[in-house]
Records
---
Amino acid sequence: MVSFILKRMGLMFIILFLVSVIIFSLVNVLPGDPALLILGQEASPEAVETLRQEMGLNDPLYVQYFRWVTDVLHGDLGNSYVDNTAVTEILMQKIPVTLELTVISFLIAFFISIPAGIISASRKGTLLDYTSTLFALSGVSIPPFFLGILLIFIFAIGLGWFAPSGYVPFAQDPVQSLLLMILPAVTVGIRLSAELTRMLRSSLLEVLQSDYIRTGYAKGLRERGVIFGHALRNALIPVITVSGLQVGTFLGGAVITETIFAVPGLGQLVVNSILTRDFPVVQGAVMFMAFAVVFINFVVDLLYSFLDPRIKLAGGTK
Amino acid sequence: MELIKVGGIQKEKAISPRKTMFKTMMKRFFQNKLAVVAGIFIVILIFMALFAPVIAPHDPSEQDYSKILKAPSAEHWFGTDEIGRDIFSRVIFGARVSLQAGLISVGIALSIGIPVGLISGFYRGAVDEIIMRITDALLSFPSLVLALALAAVLGAGLENAMMAIGIVLTPNFIRLIRAEVLAHREREYVEAAKASGLRDWRVILIHIFPNTLAPIMVQATLAIASAIISEASLSYLGLGTQPPTPSWGAMLSAGQGYLSDAPWIAICPGIFIFLTVISINLFGDGVRDMLDPKLK
């Protein structure tokens, strides 16, 4: 077990190193001179050159990379070119917003997908199953920006139940914050729930064919007892794994959703910083997202082996 | 073999196994009614894209300031936008952009993914290890974020958006093809081909590659759907197709500001993106069941 964890950690560090190289390379080939961006188009060429020297932009790329990585490891992600605020400070403001969206979206996803998956699997081939399967397929196929716009059109403009956009921090006004978060969270949550419903349905169908389920029925247990007492617990294991692995898809969806609903989170930050060529912010935000995905995948890998002891750990000594 | 009656005597009629397999596959596909309906919709869409100038009742870029924000009518089936352009014509021309984006992006991903995946799976060792770690790193980025960053690096525009989406889709193909090659490389027919003295590239191309085609085709079909969503997303954010070329994503973005006065501007292209993507997904499911029911 220990060797498995060490091996996975080693792998995680290699991936993180490669991720950092990719981000650094990407951002450094983005068109636009950072010195010119800070000083403005009116700045004299001498002033721009001096600033380039000061910022070390004339150094070879590998020198710039190692300087950047060293700073990152010391918790310094640099300052925004737009308003000189520290990137870590900006991230600290944005992360809670996206975290709130994440928690509510996942709650909505579980709330929809668990009953839908159970009904679909236990009533296989019925109208309920087809409806649930069609819902799952539609949820995967509807682009988040279209779903978001539809929700605004129906629930904000048509029925007037929610505001079409905006954000209030949870600590400031929890009720208002939740009300403003519902439409964006449903937008991302629907897609998640579609994926999870598909996963739970197929996983539950497989479990329901197991011998121990037949034994359950033979003992005289009712369907409800068999599903909730025995089948669901095992069927949920792959679902938990998949929801962990969905973090990347979720963050991609958050980029669009936060833009539609003007939610000032990480997603909106990435879009705005790319559009304004604010390199340090792009680097910091994308790096954080990729780190989150790698780390969560690592935790899910470990959790999976704990939850299902049948999983043989590669390189492990179980 | 099939038994037929000729002049009262039963005779065996020889049917080639390939023909029987094709018939079985077609039968399997046509049993999936949803996939057939989806296929018909895709054919209509391709027809729309190919003959857009003939089908579209108006010029998609023609502005008519006397007909700003007009609701759907007999003259303008899907209404008009904020500068009096016909939405129906723009949706028809938008199909060109979306299908082009879907097909070319996946084409780019396949042209990189197939050779890299084949080499990685066949040779294993250090090359495989390096390729897999780079693939892992690329898959760690939320795909839209990576596409967005690449599109920003390459510059806004449809060609660059397609390139960015193609690069983002590539790691998935590398992984799939590598896994398929790994499943085949130890089989007896591959051993036999190697033992007969064939060069590696012939073993890979003639013997292994054809056996990996079924899952590649299924994945490629489904990837077209996700490429269409990605192109529309980039266009929605302003980094994809640039005006005045009509693109469904950009139309949705422009229409969002007029949701209370003229919802048709955003909703009509949105419905088309949804129908296109769900049709491709259903069609892809049908192709999967047709090629290999075990994959279901």
---
Amino acid sequence: MPPDSQPAAVPIDATTPAAPPELLELFRGFAKILLSGFGGVLVVARRAIVEKYRWMTADEFNETYALCHFLPGPNICNLSVVFGARIRGIPGSFAAFTGLVGPPVIIVSALAMIYARYGEIPALQRTLAGVSCAAVGLVMGVAGRMIWPLVKRREPVALGFLVAIFAAIGLLRWPLVPVLLTAIPLSIAVTWATRRNAVS
Amino acid sequence: MNGGLGDLWTLAWTFGLLSLFAIGGAASAIPEMHRIAVDLHHWMTDAQFADAFAISQLSPGPNILIVTLIGYQVAGVAGGVVATAAMCGPAAVMAYNVSRFLHRSSRSKWPAILQAALVPLSIGLMTASALVLAQAADRTWLAVVLTLASAILTLATRLNPLWLLLAGGCLGFAGVV
């Protein structure tokens, strides 16, 4: 296959996706997405898939992302698999997925070796401690951003579930699997019932 | 922790199961990872877990890389690869099948209901993650202040997260936290 063929090199309307990429291109595309995205892979992924390579239209991307967001598992990994499969079948998912996950796993393994060897050095320990404090703040900030719409729309049921999960997992440290096996059916049933009442 | 087949098997089924319950992504699964790696199997200490989280955030790539680091701690490079594949594999197979199914019946109202039902749960998990990580990482009151400052900056600005992490690292290096 041509090693460096750029799909959509010709300017075309962004609503029409380019021709399906080859497997190697899929791998390289996702590897690039990945290596350029610190923290926010999704933004980069969207820009690359929709705007740069034009493998998908904006609507297709949103639909695929919404699906991957509520399914379990790492969102962006799911996205790469679903996206790769739509375009090139199962080999396509493998190409996209290994492109996304392979290079970072190699990088982080190298970091792990360095940590195993030099992790005891006080300066490195202090630095990492500082990074983790800031990183925890990031998680809090992102969680806060996600809670806000529920508070604004005054959804007591959703907020109730949110607090219950926080208490069970965060405060009581109960195991995840039994908690979710209880909470998921309950939440689906309640949501379904309230929607049905809202319609009738 | 000798990296034998037994360890790899434990990693595979532990993270394979977790994969299917990580609604909302890897950040939601942090409390369970902590429970398994620190409390249950004693693979790492609280401080090592916080360090692993910091390293995974510093690395380019999806935030599941903390799984690679936990796997590495247990069984070296093979452990890291097995744990990462297990964390992604089952969920990916499920996503693939669901997407094919929904493609055929796209008028169903179930995706919307599922989403409305699962989003609060995943946000609840994320807040639990924040608490578990804060308890592992914030050992001094200055550390708490740094965490809160980073949380406020994340909420109030669109600052690239990498700057916050670098600032945290510099303050740590300087011995402030």
